[in-house]
Amino acid sequence: MTNYGSLEEVILLPTRKLVVASTDIDLRKSEDCIVFVLLVEESFGSAGGRAGGSGSRKIGRILGFKRLQSKMDLLIDSQEMEIIDQFDVPYSAVALDIILSTGQESVVQGIVDSVLIEEYMRIVNTVV
């Protein structure tokens, strides 16, 4: 399992991902936020999980980060299906702009949803 040094490194991975955040993500600022990144495992013939497609889409790894008072901590990094299966996948995710520390924008599939973040944190607190 590859260890990632930062949220920004995970955001820049050239793989499909779903991002769930407590607030808009601007890595130039030091505002408190919680961000979960669900890395998608694509199967052959997958249509991105949309109706009418063949194949399947599943989450292969989940990473959670918490920034508090300018310090970014890793909350969870798991590839264990027993843990991943507890997290609801945000099928309502849309294009989400993320501002990187350089000021460059990165667009990912994601959602800002504080209620879902609270649910994710309850899971993290029981499995970590």
Describe the structure.
The protein has 128 residues and is α/β, with parallel strands linked by helices. The chain contains three helices and seven strands. Strands 2-6-7-1-3-4-5 form a seven-stranded mixed sheet. Strand 4 and strand 5 form a beta hairpin. The radius of gyration is 14 Å and the shape is globular. The relative contact order is 0.24.
Helices and strands in order, then pairings?
Elements: H1 7-11, E1 17-21, E2 25-26, E3 33-42, E4 57-68, E5 71-78, H2 81-84, E6 94-99, E7 105-112, H3 114-127
Parallel strand pairs: 1-7, 2-6
Antiparallel strand pairs: 1-3, 3-4, 4-5, 6-7
Summarize it.
The chain is an alpha/beta fold. 18% of the residues lie in helices and 40% in strands.
Strand ordering within the main sheet: 2-6-7-1-3-4-5
Query: Number of DSSP helices?
Result: 3
Order of helices and strands: HEEEEEHEEH
Mean of the pLDDT scores?
89
Biggest sheet statistics? 7 strands, mixed
Give me the Rg, rounded.
14 Å
Structural class: alpha/beta
- Taken as a percent bin, the fraction of beta residues is 35-45%
> Number of folding domains?
1
Low-confidence stretches: none
Give the end-to-end Cα distance, rounded to a whole number of Å: 18 Å
Q: Any idea what the shape is?
A: globular
Helix content: 10-25%
How many runs of DSSP E, i.e. beta strands? Answer: 7
